[in-house]
Amino acid sequence: MIGKWRGTYKYDIRKGFENINLTPVEFDLEIVSLENGSFNGIVQDNIDMGGTPGIGQIIGKENSDLVVFEKNMPIEAMHFQNGDQKVKRNKKHPTIIYSGNMEQDRRTISGSWKFKKSKFMWIGLIPWWYDLGSGTFTMQKID
Fold first, then answer.
1. Three-state SS for 47?
2. Which of the following CATH numbers is that of domain 3-141: 3.40.50, 2.40.128, 1.20.58, 2.60.40?
3. Is the pTM of this model over 0.70?
4. Are strands 96-102 and 66-72 parallel, antiparallel or unpaired?
5. Which residues contact 125 (CB under 8 A, 6 or more apart)?
6. If 73 and its partner were Cys, which of 55, 56, 79, 88 is the partner (CB 3.0–4.6 Å)?
7. Strand 96-102 to strand 134-141: parallel, antiparallel, or no bridges (unpaired)?
8. Looking at residue 50, what is its pLDDT?
């Protein structure tokens, strides 16, 4: 698992967001250490494709063919219904959980991702928890 990986993540299109063109985003990930099934490394999204700016940290576990990791980006970036992206450089991006299966050749991982937490907001007098998003990903080892 140690080494460089290149991947793509895609968004699940939620109700009310059908008109948004959320294109797949490429990312580069490097796993720098692996010990007893636990690993860590760095990740960088392609910002020209709508990815989150900055170099993030990953920490995860692999068990046989199951790979699960958290992605923590230093800058918050959110997509809106009109297709705009808002970047908050003074705030960390919410943690994203990736969970996937490794192919037998141990060079491809595919699965799903979702935000670790939901957000809370008020709609009038009604409290509402909403999911920040989810999707799918695939990544291949490149060295």
1. helix
2. 2.40.128
3. yes
4. antiparallel
5. none
6. 56
7. unpaired
8. 85
- Could you report the average pLDDT of every consecutive run of 10 residues in the chain (143 residues)? 96 68 89 97 94 96 96 86 77 94 96 82 68 89 93
pLDDT of residue 85: 77
Half-sphere exposure of 66 (CA within 13 A, CB side): 4
SS3 label, residue 7: strand
Question: pLDDT at position 56, please?
Answer: 98
Kindly list the domain boundaries of the chain, sorted by start residue: 3-141
Amino acid at 44: Q
Look up residue 31 and give its two tokens: 């796993």
Half-sphere exposure of 93 (CA within 13 A, CB side): 30
The whole-number pLDDT of residue 123 equals: 72
How many whole angstroms separate alpha carbon 79 and alpha carbon 132?
10
